[in-house]
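Sample A.
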Amino acid sequence: MSLPLPAHRPRRLRRTPALRALTREVTLAPAHLIHPMFVHEQEGDTPVATMPGVMRHSVASAVESARTALALGIRSVILFGIPDAKDALGGGAYDEGGVIQRATRAIKAALPELTVIADTCLCEYTDHGHCGPLCEVAGGQWTVDNDPTLELLARTAVSQARAGADVVAPSAMMDGQVAAIRAGLDAAGFGHVPVMSYAVKYASAYYGPFRDAAGSTPSVGDRASYQMDPAGGYREALREARLDVAEGADYLMVKPALAYLDVLKLLRDEFDLPLVTYNVSGEYALVKAAAQLGFMDERRTVLETLTGMRRAGADAIITYHALDAARWLAESR
């Protein structure tokens, strides 16, 4: 019996690397990556046990890591502070001499062409690990007191802008935080500083290694009363994003990335603002652990994962793989 031959042969366009490159729709380059750094107030660097290859940097070391990123073609870094002292109100976040403020000044002095993004939150600075001052609610439960937190977030953003941050990135998931920060920046003469909103941020188990790195695990309760429910649908995601757009957000972010690529695509189709996603600590740690055990090819896995985030609609990706990915991309040219 003679079978009919295929009329269409898509494999023709996949025969060689050059043919595959000719029809490739999604690009991944170092300029799409944002290099995240933890900065502490101590002199030396310390490794983060749950995130192999990631360090808690001194201010001086953060400058050198930023220099390495820029040399690799990465044009943006995002900074997370780890203060020596913490308090109930997270005062270190808006201290003009705080660790992120000092790191920002140092990086901008050394590398003025690099974009410095400041994470604008209080969780690394509070002694209870939550994203703002706490209040007691019915049943003896504790949660973040939303409206007083807005003032502290605005103060934090202004202090970061004053230190030279090019972008502020509120991640506390407080109602009205973008509007409060935008008003604070404008009133202080920083109307030119954009707001990168963690608009759609889920209460995720994937944040575990970050909390180890930053010492921000909540001492009471959890963040489920203000971060989004992973089982929430598209309506909630769209509502959160639309509110932030209305309040003046310049960028939108989806966090985490891997389990929420459908949400990332949803926002890409709905909004024309620049869209960022965060390839978070747990996603990073999973790949690192599997690679160390010989279960996966780290390079191929990382580049495929980041390409998938770009395909889903991300204009930029915050990733702890940034330096390695940039090196691998340079090698593949």
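Sample B.
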Amino acid sequence: MTPRSADRAPDIACLEGDATYDVRWAWQDGPLDPGLTCVFRVKNEARNLPWVLPPMLRAVQRVVLVDNESDDGTPEVAQRVADECGAGDRIEVTSYPFRVSRAGTEHLATPPHSVHSLTHFYNWSFSHVRTGYSMKWDGDMVLTGEGEALLADLAWQLHGSGAVVAVPRHPLSIESESVAWVDLGFRFLEPWVYPMGPQFTFVKAFEWEVREFPETSERIVAPEGLCVELKWLDQDEFAHWTSAEDFDSSRAPRKRREWEVYSALREGRGAEVPGLHRIEAPPGVHVVDHVTRTWLPQAPRPLVKRRGRLDV
């Protein structure tokens, strides 16, 4: 928070009355700097960050990483990785010390301006952005070389355009260090890159938060093959949801697909799921590195056959 923003009334006051976690937008204090800031909201992502952070730090001007009560050393790993990349001065690691409602029924029951709301958590996290563009990104999403190059170009090309960018991602379920399954059965696509401004803030929806943008905004759809989303089969990838029953909503097709894939792989039925591909890395190469550096860049396009799509 800049000294100027700290001195003025909040743009969004939290219900609990803790001024530290009120939202004060930087654009209220004057023009924002050119460039793109990536905002991570993370919990227990220490395992993923050595893959996630280096390409992102090379692609964008700044990174804001907001840790939400991790107990695996996530903040320390984030700072160490950034320092090792020579980008320690371009990452801001901060903490959000409140239990945040899980997506689904629990989120729906939480007031939007409570510190426990996904909506307030996201707005507070993005209030740390000081550049004209920002992007939402998850702590388990790894850019390929193509994805890194595209974001680096967008970081300066988007300035002043008002455009919103949607980025396809490909879930990668990791069975072991050498074996993983990539889901190319559906198209997972949602907007990730937005201008900063009063028309581009987060509001409450039924199952989760949604970032608003004007209907007149140009929507750019990035090509396939830019990133994978890591899904470790030895951990609970659905802990941030209230219940698997929430996946039945017509508004949650992506989670239904993820649950279908997860259940099939846990039961040894991966080969039966249309569009799910087993990948085995060469000896001595981790499967995440193999997929992002070799397999995905070389896979024939289009990656996802147009039998179905999940635009959320």
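B remarks: Residues 192 and 306 are 22 Å apart (CA to CA). Residues 253-266 form the longest helix (14 residues).
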